[in-house]
Design a protein that fits this description.
Layout (H helix, E strand, L loop, with lengths): L2 H27 L3 H4 L4 H6 L7 H9 L1 H10 L6 H10 L1 H4 L1 H16 L1 H29 L17 H35 L2 H14 L5 H12 L1 H13 L5 H32 L2 H29 L2
């Protein structure tokens, strides 16, 4: 990871954290929560989550960092089970930017309208299953109700005081998150420069070939483990040249996606990302639970492909 990339990531994280907390507190203080979060509140209630978490849910549609920065600012008031359930329940909302920016344009153009759309639907189905698991988890694990406020809700405050308080909380929260993020991203950058993750990928490629996949499937799985975008582009070329069927292509992409999540995404991105917001123990719980859920979900998606695609 180049130094410019590290600096860019830190700048984006700082901006997202600050704006996320600042905007959320303004929404709460000016009593706009009931107006803009009505569609989300029933989902929060079903999962036994505090209804105020509908604010970070909405913000996560724009930027997940802003949403998690709000959760981080109230972490001392809630149990780990609330954070875990929230993260799972809000998966369909937080995945929207990823689908729009990455999967939608690349998948449709490379794989074609039918195959690309089907792949995107599969990814969204996985998010919906995560939400269902999160709701069940919340109903089983969250036993008490929470009466939370992001900051003191004093209706007699002047608007300028409200803005100042929101700014102060945003600054304080950002100051807590960014130093941890800098440390973690520096460690990950060092491991990348040492070739640590490339070594893991090479070992995994050898392992994959032992399961008897076709050369085209093996190629897609191996590439996806390193770069999902490159894998989708490669899959498009293989489809155009008749070197792989639609069913085989989708199955290979799903397997590659799971391996990417386990080997690359969560160790390199998700775990450092969560540690920036939460204690290491909770970050480890989030990563472990999400890996287990993806291991459960992937066979379900593969069954859908197997029976629906000729």
């Amino acid at each position: 990871m180049l130094i410019n990339d590290v600096i860019y990531s830190i700048i984006i994280m700082t901006i997202a954290c600050f704006l996320g907390v600042f905007i959320a507190n303004l929404i709460f203080e000016f009593s706009l929560i009931q107006l803009i979060s009505k569609p989300i509140i029933p989902i929060m209630k079903i999962a036994n989550l505090p209804t105020i978490l509908s604010i970070p849910t909405l913000i996560s549609i724009i930027d997940i960092r802003g949403g998690l920065s709000i959760i981080s600012s109230i972490k001392h008031k809630i149990d780990d089970s609330v954070v875990i359930s929230y993260k799972l329940v809000t998966r369909p909302f937080s995945i929207i930017p990823l689908l729009i920016r990455n999967y939608l344009p690349i998948s449709i153009i490379s794989l074609g309208l039918f195959t690309g759309s089907f792949y995107i639907i599969l990814i969204f189905i996985s998010a919906l299953i995560s939400m269902i698991i999160g709701i069940i988890y919340g109903r089983l694990k969250i036993k008490k109700s929470y009466d939370l406020e992001l900051i003191s809700n004093n209706k007699e405050k002047r608007k300028i005081d409200t803005i100042k308080n929101s700014l102060n909380l945003a600054i304080d929260t950002t100051k807590k998150i960014i130093p941890k993020y800098v440390i973690i991203i520096s460690i990950i950058s060092l491991l990348i420069s040492m070739g640590f993750f490339n070594t893991i990928s090479d070992k995994l490629d050898i392992f994959i070939r032992q399961f008897g996949f076709s050369s085209s499937s093996t190629l897609l799985i191996s590439i996806h483990t390193i770069s999902p975008t490159s894998s989708i582009l490669t899959a498009g070329e293989l489809l155009k040249n008749g070197l792989i069927s639609i069913k085989e292509c989708l199955l290979a992409l799903l397997i590659g996606r799971l391996l990417f999540i386990i080997v690359m995404d969560y160790p390199r991105h998700s775990f450092p990302f969560y540690v920036s917001f939460f204690p290491v123990k909770l970050a480890f719980k989030l990563v472990t639970i999400e890996i287990i859920i993806n291991i459960i979900i992937t066979p379900i998606l593969m069954i859908i492909v197997y029976f629906l695609i000729p």
